[in-house]
Design goal:
304 residues, alpha+beta, Jelly Rolls, Arc Repressor Mutant, subunit A, 2 domains, 3-stranded antiparallel β-sheet, 8 strands, DNA-binding transcription factor activity, HTH_AraC, DNA-binding, Tscrpt_reg_AraC-type_HTH, Homeodomain-like_sf
């Protein structure tokens, strides 16, 4: 019998990605892409700050142990410390633009008295909301979109413009994110790395019944040890994380489609509508119908 190796595992950890940049202008090549609900890239991490702008579509962004919904007009900021992956809503495609850059080196000659704005370590952890809502903070999301377009089109003096826009972005982020809030200690990447195959499997299959033994097998460990590893890396057990994933996916469909609530429940792994309604209201404080109608916006509670 052939013994399955780590190389055979389609959900194995993506490699740490080093982004080649010019020392004089440490900004990568922009990536404008369109993807469906099954991303062609697994959970990954970079050695540079990543910014992105969603031009169209909706879906979920998994960043570290956080799960965010996104829609067209939103932006994302991801530090070098957080493993991440995005996926579109079921049946939907998303169009994003992404860019990697090193703001510290890019702006090194003009730091002056605003050096606190370049403390990139503050833009990660549980307190930082990586997805920036375009309706709430258009000044930030538009700034990110402008940076992407400048680097893509390279008009006259685009490097000077990108530096100017990056300074504006750093100052706006510093204003948007209250640096006086407690900043969680950075998670050990090695803890998350051990369970990335399971995270990718959950991302691809959250609507199906999930077997803990299967997740443990993907991570090449026992089921009991897998549960310990998962809790240590994500701060909760696998089942509450799966519940959060399903309900956030339901939020995206409720806000960005006309699909019936019953079908949304089924797409998100619920065979019983009343069970879906109950769990949705327990987590968000409103029913799925009221959430769709915008009365009121839900208060998100992370399961322990």
């Amino acid at each position: 019998m052939r013994i399955r190796s780590r190389k055979d595992n389609p959900y194995r950890t993506e490699q740490f990605q080093r982004i080649p940049v010019d020392d004089e202008f440490p900004v990568g090549v922009p990536d404008f892409n369109t993807r469906d609900e099954h991303p062609d890239i697994g959970p990954h991490i970079h050695d540079l700050l990543e910014i992105g702008y969603c031009f169209d579509g909706s879906g979920l962004f998994l960043i570290g142990d956080k799960i965010f919904t996104f829609k067209g007009g939103d932006a994302v900021v991801i530090n070098t410390h957080e493993v991440h992956i995005a996926r579109g809503s079921p049946g939907d495609t998303t169009s994003w633009g992404f860019l990697h850059l090193d703001p510290v080196r890019l702006l090194a000659d003009n730091v002056g008295s605003y050096s606190d704005s370049l403390k990139l370590s503050q833009y990660c952890g549980a307190a930082f909301k990586n997805i920036i809502d375009g309706d709430e903070h258009p000044e930030i999301t538009n700034c990110i979109r402008q940076i992407l377009v400048e680097v893509r089109d390279r008009p006259k003096n685009y490097r000077a413009m990108v530096r100017s826009l990056t300074w504006r972005l750093m100052l706006l982020l510093n204003r948007y994110y209250n640096v006086n809030e407690a900043i969680d200690a950075l998670q050990d990447y090695q803890d998350i790395e051990r369970i990335v195959p399971a995270l990718r499997f959950l991302n691809d299959n959250y609507s199906a019944d999930v077997d803990m033994a299967k997740l443990a097998e993907l991570c090449f460990t026992s089921e009991s040890n897998f549960r310990k590893l998962f809790h240590r890396a994500m701060g909760c057990a696998p089942q509450p994380y799966l519940l959060r994933l399903r309900l956030n996916a339901a939020c995206t469909l409720l806000k960005n489609s006309t699909t019936s609530i019953l079908e949304i429940a089924q797409r998100c792994g619920y065979n019983n509508l009343s069970n879906f309604n109950r769990q949705f209201k327990e987590r968000f404080g409103v029913s799925p119908r009221d959430y769709r109608n915008g009365r009121p916006e839900p208060q998100r509670q992370e399961p322990g």
